Input
Amino acid sequence: MTESQVQLVEFLDDAIGRNKEIADKYRPEAIRAELMNETGIDVDVVLRKMPGKRTEVEQAAVKSYLERLFPEEARQQNADPTPEQAEAQNRYEQGRLLYGRFEEGDPTVQADVDAIALRMQEAYQAVEDAFGAEAEYYMFHVNENPWALVNDPELTAEQQDAVLYYINAKAALDGVMDASNEAADRKRAEVEQSVGKRTHKDNGIIIPATMKVDDRQVYVVKGDVVMFPMAQPLMCATLRRVSLSWTRRLESMNLHRPDQIFKVSEAVNPQDELDTALSVIEQEQMSVFGQKCHCTRRACRGRSTH
Output
């Protein structure tokens, strides 16, 4: 080893020694210990919990831990958006509002949604035209990390314009699609809850019935009811009262004598009801895009740009 190399090693050792305390301060275990002293929260334990089961204090501790562990990313996330990012976010919010109007039955919405789908087609074509043979490569990056791509100094002005047009078009489409997916998820949950309330607790099928008073439609959800060709058409096999769930709001479940029931209809498989209802929800969700649905699916494979 030459003298200069020995001097370099000594310099590095000295530098490491001088900065060891600073480096140790930013080690994960040091950050967790610091948070433990500040908040009394053991971040290591909290991280093993499902996010939904963390308290607000624990969530704040995890957020602080990640910000200290990755300070540069935290600064980037907290930085003010650029005018281009603000514009994309605005397009996204407008798209969400647009689907809200669609759900409310606004007849003017379809033209606006068609315009969004058309702009998405145009944006897709613009990227292909601007990047030529490399379009597939750049299409991947515009979907995965659009803001890094649009700031690439190697892009031509035409290519930057194509990327920005794509970002804004996709942001509007993402807004509509995200609102659509959230509405569909909510409706699916409501359907599953409704079917669950009407399903018999023991045998797992739906048993519609009609009461003698006012022909009220109900569902048998507990107990056994059988029909006999007798003066009293319905009897309970176990000689106990049966539980009935009302059809209108499905909010109450009451005990009734079997002789209060006029008739029991054919049992229904709850999965059939679920499948039918979920199919309707899916068709309703996709109907907003009409014939332009194929292009929107193709363009929406990447991450949201908002």
About this structure: The CA atoms of residues 226 and 235 lie 6 Å apart. Residues 231-241, 246-250, 291-303 have pLDDT under 50 and may be disordered.
